Amino acid sequence: MKRIAFVKDNTKLWTVWAPIFEQKGYNVVLLNTFSKTDQDRLLTEHWDAFIWRAKHDPWIKNLAKRFLSFFDIQQKIKTFPSFHDYLHYDDKITQYYILKSKSIPTPETYIYFDKNEAFQFLESANFPVVYKASSGSGSGNVGLIKSKLQGKIFIQKAFGKGVKAFFREEPIHRYCYFQEFLRGNKGDYKIVCFGDRRITGFIRIKGEEEKDLSLPRDKHYKYDIPIDLLEFVSSVHRKLGSLPVMSYDILKNNEGEWVVTELGVIFGDINNWHYYTDSKIYERNSEGIFTELEKSELSNDELFIELLLKKWGWVD
Questions:
Q1: Cβ atoms within 10 A of the Cβ of 140, count?
Q2: Given 40, 55, 87, which residue is the final one in a domain?
Q3: Are the beta carbons of 248 and 191 closer than 8 angstroms?
Q4: Residue 171's domain spans which residues?
Q5: Residue 96 lies in a domain
Q6: Domain count, the chain
Q7: Which residue has the higher pLDDT, 206 or 224?
Q8: pTM exceeds 0.90
């Protein structure tokens, strides 16, 4: 029986996925990677696979990269995510490099590691300009620069003491990440692809209604996905290798074309997982056209695990 080392991560998705693996006959061992005892077990016992759905907190992410590198690269043991796919997780700079190299549409982006080049950018910039931290999430990592003067102050700080971000361990320091301001989007789409078989997702509505905290959060989520967006994301996912799972954040640029703003092999947690499980499911019909499935034999989680096992070569 194959043994899977499954990390009890803080997203708590192991409570959903571990039972599915066990039902398929795999021996799942739940471990805490921050425990010295469990670390010793990981290094001394035999494992056939290692799963750690580690989110973006720096102290978690940094240890996860070490273990994924160790098992995937050094030990040649199956992992989820793969070290290759996790390396660009929560790293907007690396994600931009990947998207650009694959000719995948993304907002106009300007990344500088030289202060003088960043200052030069301001001379021709079309304000307002968005600035972002390369890692982390939340409003503390994104802001608007509305004038050349604001831009100069920001650049001076970024290449000086640094600009505070969501995680104090990861300030905007010695680089600037600027992006064109995209107008007219009522929200951003969070789209999830499962291999080349299924797409699901929703739009996160932005606007004045979000300021009313008495409204249920579900009011800000809508589940219809335009057909042209399904086709766009499908083509993006194919360019990236039709992985068992990948999420994409999508907006329209100022010309009305779809663009990818971010991607990630890790997304969501047990507290918001219902947004993904409640989403409409789209698959191609016999004519190759995306249609909504009223019923599916496999849940999204079951399909993901089936696709992962196929990728690992454990099932046909």
A1: 14
A2: 87
A3: yes
A4: 108-180
A5: no
A6: 3
A7: 224
A8: yes
Point out which residues pair with 222 in neighbouring strands.
203
Strand residues in 129-245 grouped as ranges (E): 129-132, 142-145, 176-180, 187-194, 198-205, 221-222
Q: Which residue has the tokens 């849940």?
A: 299
Answer whether 184's CB lies under 8 Å from 166's CB.
no
What's the average model confidence in pLDDT over 73-85?
A: 98
DSSP state of 163: B
User: Are 49 and 77 within 8 A, CB to CB?
Assistant: yes
Residue 108's DSSP bridge partners are none
The verdict on residue 98 lying in a domain is: no
**How far from 30 is each of 52, 53, 273, 313, CA to CA, in Å?**
10, 13, 21, 23
pLDDT tens profile 230-268:
999 999 999 999 999 999 999 999 999 999 999 999 999
Distance CA 146, CA 181 (A): 10
Helix (H), strand (E) at residue 249 = strand 246-252
CA 176 to CA 117: how far, in whole Å? Answer: 10
* Helix, strand, coil tally for the chain in percent (to 5): 35, 25, 40
Q: Which of 55, 87, 119 is the last residue of a domain?
A: 87
82 and 132 belong to one structural domain: no
20: tokens are 């599915």
Q: Which residues pair with 13 in a beta bridge?
A: none
